[in-house]
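Continuing the series of single-chain predictions for the mutant panel. This is the parent chain; the variants come on the following pages.
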Amino acid sequence: MSRKPDKTKPPQHKRWEGKEKPDWLARALARAGIFPQDEADDAIRAGRVSINGRVAKMALAPVPPGATVKVDGHVVSLEAPATRVLAFHKPAGLLSSTERQHRTGTVFEALLPQLPPELARYTWHAVGRLDVDSTGLLLFTNDDKLVAHATSPDTRLPKRYVATVFSIADDEKVEPLRRGMTLDDGPARPAKVRVRDEHTVEVTLTEGRHHQVKRMLGAVGLPVRALHREAVGGVSLDGIPEGTFRLLTDDEVHEGLRYEGRAPSAP
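Parent structure:
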């Protein structure tokens, strides 16, 4: 005997139609800076989190707008915290990834243990990446919308690199980079290029494709021996020692990265 549809419960895809859709619990806790993502999952599994008086059993449990969420019996605010950005001086030999490959360490393993408690509670996202053998400025943020903003080619946020090359560099050799050139994955925008000396070339891009600087210089007979990123937008390393970080100011985020960001909550 076939069952008649239960008209008292709207279909899942229509339940939130025209309304603000709920976030899922573990992500909501992480975005609010209550726990990093993995600790949020652990807290939920341990029965420490409730939604509207009921203990949550699943990390993917929906959190309806306006719900009362408690951790260890205390009400927590799930309002997204202010945008925070870290400037990290990446050493060579680290992956811009959350996962190890063989014995290669990651930038997260180098950065996270350094963070003070007021920053360690956030979930951090790398803003783009640098190759394992490349060094220099790598940004991290607790705001995933900033990642999309800074890495989108439509934003045209300049990124300045310094390449050490094997061959002899001169203005004639790098001129194709200034005019714009075609790579194996399509046309590349014109780059700002300055020859610092015969083995050092400064390249500023407004896009960030895979191995782009290395491929552009390799295409004009200047294979790259080492690559270092000095700046992203108006943010530079500014003497940050290798392997360490500093917290950007709000002005650096707004003006340097051209991003409004999330303002601090009202007291």
